[in-house]
Write a structure and sequence with these properties.
The complex is a heterodimer of chains A (about 300) and B (about 400).
Chain A lengths: L6 H30 L7 H19 L2 H25 L4 H24 L12 E2 L9 H6 E2 L1 H19 L1 H11 L1 H6 L4 H28 L10 H11 L4 H23 L6 H18 L20
Antiparallel strand pairs in A: 1-2
Helix pairs in contact in A: 1-6, 1-9, 1-10, 1-11, 2-3, 2-4, 2-9, 2-10, 3-4, 3-9, 6-7, 6-11, 7-9, 10-11, 10-12, 11-12
Chain B lengths: L7 H7 L9 H30 L4 H12 L4 H24 L7 H22 L2 H18 L2 H10 L3 H21 L32 H18 L1 H11 L1 H6 L4 H28 L10 H11 L7 H22 L5 H23 L8 H6 L12 H5 L7
Helix pairs in contact in B: 1-10, 2-3, 2-15, 3-14, 4-9, 4-12, 4-13, 4-14, 5-6, 5-8, 5-12, 6-12, 7-8, 7-12, 9-10, 9-12, 13-14, 13-15
Chain lengths: ~300, ~400
Amino acid sequence: MTNLFHQDVLTALISGGVIAGIPLLLAACGESISERSGVLNLGLEGMMIIGAYTGFVAAYYLHSTWLGFLGGAGGGVLACTVMIVLCVWLGLDQIVVGIAITLAGEGITSVLQGAQFGTTYPRLGATPTTSIPLLHKIPVIGPGLFEQNLLVYLGIIFAVFLTWFFRSTSVGLNLRAAGEKPEALDAAGVSVAATRSWAVLSTGALAGLGGGFLAIVGAGVFTPFMTQGQGYMAIVICMLGRGKPIWVALASLLFGISLSITTALQLAGIEISTDLINMLPFIAVMVALVLFGRRSYLPPALALPYIRGAR
Amino acid sequence: MSTVPGNELLTEVEVPNRAGARSGAVGKAIDTVIRSLVPVLLALVAGGVLLLILGHNPFAFYSSVWEHGAQNKAWQESAKRMAPLLLIAVGLIVAFRANIWNLGYNGQFLLSAAIISGLAPSLVNDLPLGLAFLILFLVAGAVGAIWTIVPALLKAFYETNEIITTLMMSFIGVGLAQILIKGPFQDPSVNIAQTKVLELDKMLPHIPGTKVHVGVLVALAAAVVVYLAISRTSFGLKIDVLGANPRAARHVGIGVKQLIITSFFISGALIGAAAAADILGVWGYIRANWNPAYGDTVIPFVFLARLNPLVVIPFIAFFAVLSTGGTLATQEVGLPTDFLLVLVALILLFMTVIEFLGRRRSLGQSYLTTGLKDALRPPGSKKKAPPTEVEEKPREVVR
């Protein structure tokens, strides 16, 4: 089985790529919502790890995948309220608060996990999958794309929905205005703080949901620091996708594949350093940034708190 | 209290932020102390509450931290811990003053650490010890500096956001360090993925009468040198201008591109030197997957010290005690040592809150450089809620 293009290997690669890509997709879509509204959310990593923890705990005690997802989203919302209060309402430094949320998230989940389970890491069972009739029987891509957890489909649908939401709804327009020219939004009689609060709130929910998916479906277990920089990757994906959800989704799945390539290579019997493989996504990001991201578009009011009447 | 009249730009950058409501040197000192210490105290209190919730006695915990971090001979361990922390802090200060967010410290540190651990065993045997240490420190600095090169060039020429690029390079650097440790630098005589262990007499010598290695003196010297460079040389003035306003910097004829690259290099070099001090002074080898993430924990103290390399020293000393004592204290009560991360995050959060209240009440100085502060305001909002009279006062020079 040393052939990389053997059917099993490709199936595992695509399936693993989708599972690894969905947390990135959810978090990156979340980040694009808050970035478009003018809030640079560097706490994404922390929100993901908190979501992973709360999601896992909910799924573990309530024996339900969906309640687990809900718990994950709840954890993300909880973490992002800190950001809303400090950054959106009080106008404090988004970078410093973002770093703080990440550190706090990593620390607190590790402490809580230790307090609860000690040094054991209980596992969750396999999660239910939904097969799409006929399509899931296609060889190679069928099992990977059409026989997954329902949330996978919902995540992809959400990216499409988000495109429409940004482009064609008045709320989406308000959101973009909050990032482009908050003064104009304020003058039009819409509260900038409220718009941004809702944006960050949905970011938190999505990042938490992504973290929950990572713990419940991806790993089936919660270990401290399990997000391993995926939150930061999501921020980069959002930058590379220039805030366009479809591109964000595609980039997430690509990065998901590079995350899951280790397993596929092991199946193929190829011996390669896992450290090298783990570096691949980040190298890919740097190459992509050097080649395409140099003129990446960011909203003008990004990371600037809005203070009414300030000039 | 001397005020420097005349050149507004010059005086402006000497002390980027002053919005003192109280008058007099004493009042100002009190303000600064309040602003710097209150977040730490609040974080310790909040951490204590968290300990109570988890079912531990916070007083016992903190006294255990003190016992293991400062009492008897424990202070020597803390002093050793100060060396890497202080060098990283000073490295971050150089970058942050130039308004460059060098968040790639973990990669810069670990890559330097891996290369130093790999080179040291043969170098200390082949060369006179002093020369070997000098070369190793220079190599460590060079590695740290080289690892900032891509973010520096991207930032200088394309204005790519350095937060993202340094973070990515950090992950790559950590990975590369693992590959080096497991590959070329692996000690063939052991089964664990680690480098060859330096013999005790081939490590950095101790300060006479103590068990503290001289790397601490290197770190203190670096802090003083950087302080002098920042406050007394044209380079320091230039990076402060750059930090305050890149457009103004270009306008007065500062080579902004070179300056960005230089600041990045100095920052990376100091962080690399931190790795040399830690490996040659304390550990003597590096094991795969070891990542102390010193930089993460240093950030709040860098801000609390208002980006001043001398003021940061007592903060780092405090954290070194908390860190060495805390590691043992958490193990004693069966908590993960990551509890310390929570304390650090709490300090950061309370710092921003105190900063907010301080802005409201014009308490002492802000922790952000003018540039960073401006970057966080809506475009063109020079004259903000706190009265303009504060903005227009001549700034004082604090030495």
